[in-house]
Amino acid sequence: MRIHRRALLALAVATGLTAPSLAFAEDSIKIGLLATFEGPFTVLGEDGERGAMTAIEEVGGTVAGKKIEIVKGSSDASPDSAVRAARKLVEQDGVKVLVGPLSGDEGIAVKDYAKTQPDVTFINGTSAAQDTTLRDPAENFFRFSTDGAQWMAGLGTYAYNEKGYKKVATVAEDYSFPYTQVFGFMAEFCKAGGTVPSKSWVPIGNKDYSSVIAAIPDDVDAIYVALGGADGVNFLTQYQQAGGSAPLIGGSITVDQTVLTSKGKIREVVIGTPSAGPVADTNDAPEWKAFVEAYKKQPNAFPSPSLFAHGYYVDMKATLLALEQVGADVSDGGAKLREALSKLSFDTPTGKVSLDKNRNAIADIYLTEVAEGSDGNLYNKLVKVVPQVNQTLGIPEEEFLKLGVVGRDNPSCP
Amino acid sequence: MTVLASTEQPVSAGTVIEKIGAGNIVLLVLLVLYPAVASNFFLAQIGAYSLILGMIALSLMLLAGYGGMVSLAQISVAGIAGYTVAVFGLNNSGVHGFGWPFWIVVPFATLIGAVASALIGLISNRTEGIYTIMITLAIATAFFYFTQQNYSLFNGFPGYTGIRAPEFWGVAWRDPLPFYYLCLGFAVVTYAAVLYGSRSTYGLTLQAVRDNPRRMRALGFNVTAHKVVAYFYAGVIAGLAGVLLVWFNGRISPGTINVAAAINVLIIAVIGGMRHPIGPFLGAIVVVLMQTFAIDIVGAERFNTLIGLFFLVIVFVSPDGLLGLWGRIKPHLAQESLRSLR
């Protein structure tokens, strides 16, 4: 009997916990928002949320007359946690539209999950691994933010032609997003005639880079670094302390505010570092400036939106535009919504965005270089805009696919 | 020991029900009927997942509760079994995937897990108390980093994807309902085995080793062998759970077995209580419910704080976890019913 009572109690607790999700009104539309609210990328996930909320506030929290209800899911940047959170949003909370996730391998895992839920529409957050959309894509997974190889557009050529680097070593984190970034850089750099004799892959959260630094050949002209957040600062500090003097080339999330605002000798090392990505802090376009102002209204916003805020903004914006077109009606299993999404072409703060046949974005990419401002602060100076970069980087798709799956050993040009 | 003795029913000997215990039977019936009221999400993501985590925590409870050895490497053992399934079964990561049939892969993976567990037991055997925790934590951490950086065997950071549960007897075993019963079946068998084992000669010897290893050694028992065998049995349970876990997720990567996951297993065992094999399962249900729904209660920014506070309260109120809490409430309830009789 007692056990029975206990079971009833458990049941009551369980229903109490699920009740909020059952309160589903006809005049509202639920959108799942999946980002990293825990683990090493928490700060980035929160900025992604700010970007998504900026897009929602732009439309006043309603789409086609229906109130937008955001249901959040949290992952810790591991693929398992992303799928678990997506499952909860879809199977328990009943969202028919889901925006996210944030990190590379999460995106591939959620894409695989999307195939088992054909009636749910998935729109990427900022996950930028190439194979989320290039190979074996899911019909219902859309990416309006570009991938990590696209973010590198123009950088390899610039490093070879303008900077005169012929031989470059790479240091990057050991998972799919940095693979994609290195791939994007090398695709152009090797084609231009450069060589990459050494590639080092380090685990996320690595603290000691001495063995990596020792393995970098002495005769390289520059080092390509694709490390995020604290990893980037740790590497740069240790490299500089070890007496390294080669100039740097940055990945999209390497030369961010944490690196630019760090004190000490790193400053001298990073000045002149070229980099590329989907956003540029010093973009003077009025659309970008308006976006920055709107973004800054979000709680705890950074001085300038990170590419995560931008990516989530663009993907959420696309979702809202498409929902507006179909009257926020997903009762048909989202078929109309997906139709609208695949045809969507719109102007973002960073130029026009449209989709290719794999539902991956074609968008502008910004080439930047670290410079010292008149006030002594370092900033990413906009060098040029590479217009309308597609996923195959301008190479015909057949030829591009022949380059093979991105990974530790591909591409290679020693 | 004392707790076990007190749960036995004081009635005339003989019938099966008495041997198993009425409480266990009621519990089993409720769990078998659970799908009648539960949605698919509550069946798989809450029910089956709790049972799987409960089994991993059960293997820790076996070691810690009966053997006095707190091993943080049980998630690694589950991970080894899971990776074995991925490597020798089928996956779509394009690495290995020998395609052995499940009826070879499952026992093989379990055996590999059990042997790995026994090896961990052998290594940590010379240590006691906090040093066992340290050395097993070191093993778990090292294994996590190894899987993350080794590509030839573990496929590095992405791990293995596209691992499917088998389909036989016309049943797709990863569908929510069959999968729930599959997990329930394994959980019941392991639970019963631990309960039975704890009263067997070996189980009693192990508990005696826990209480006084020197005396047991003087009496002629091989203390080392008893401990290593306990690790082997715990490895069988964790290995089975690892197989289910990899079917549940459909994938395995270093994120499945990282240090946070290792600590999670310890939390489950502590929350539930380590005195009785039901404790880990209770703990798993509480932890899974909290980790799934806390974000709906307080929002994305502070939900981990809420989870932490909730666990803190449980441990603060009752150092023995939920089982201890129940142990304290029970006498009060008994008196309550006596009062109402009057």
Automatic annotation (TrEMBL), chain A:
Residue intervals of the Leucine-binding protein domain: 28-373
Signal peptide segment: 1-25
Transport in keyword set: yes
SUPFAM superfamilies documented for this protein: Periplasmic binding protein-like I (SSF53822)
One of the protein's GO biological processes: amino acid transport
Keywords: Amino-acid transport, Signal, Transport
Record bears the keyword Signal: yes
Origin: domain of life: Bacteria
Classification via PANTHER family: LEUCINE-SPECIFIC-BINDING PROTEIN, PERIPLASMIC BINDING PROTEIN OF ABC TRANSPORTER FOR NATURAL AMINO ACIDS
Protein family membership: Belongs to the leucine-binding protein family.
UniProt-recorded name of the protein: ABC transporter substrate-binding protein
Originating organism: Pseudaminobacter soli
From TrEMBL, chain B:
Residues passing through the membrane, by range: 20-37, 43-63, 70-90, 102-123, 130-147, 179-198, 219-248, 254-274, 281-300, 306-326
Keyword set includes Thylakoid: no
Top-level taxon in the UniProt lineage: Bacteria
Localization per Swiss-Prot or TrEMBL: Cell membrane
Membrane topology summary: Multi-pass membrane protein
Keywords, comma-separated and alphabetical: Cell membrane, Membrane, Transmembrane, Transmembrane helix
Principal location class: membrane
Keyword Cell wall biogenesis/degradation: no
Molecular function, one GO term: branched-chain amino acid transmembrane transporter activity
GO CC, one annotated term: plasma membrane
InterPro entries given in the database record: ABC_transp_permease (IPR001851), LivM-like (IPR043428)
UniProt name for this protein: Branched-chain amino acid ABC transporter permease
Organism per entry: Pseudaminobacter soli (ex Zhang et al. 2022)
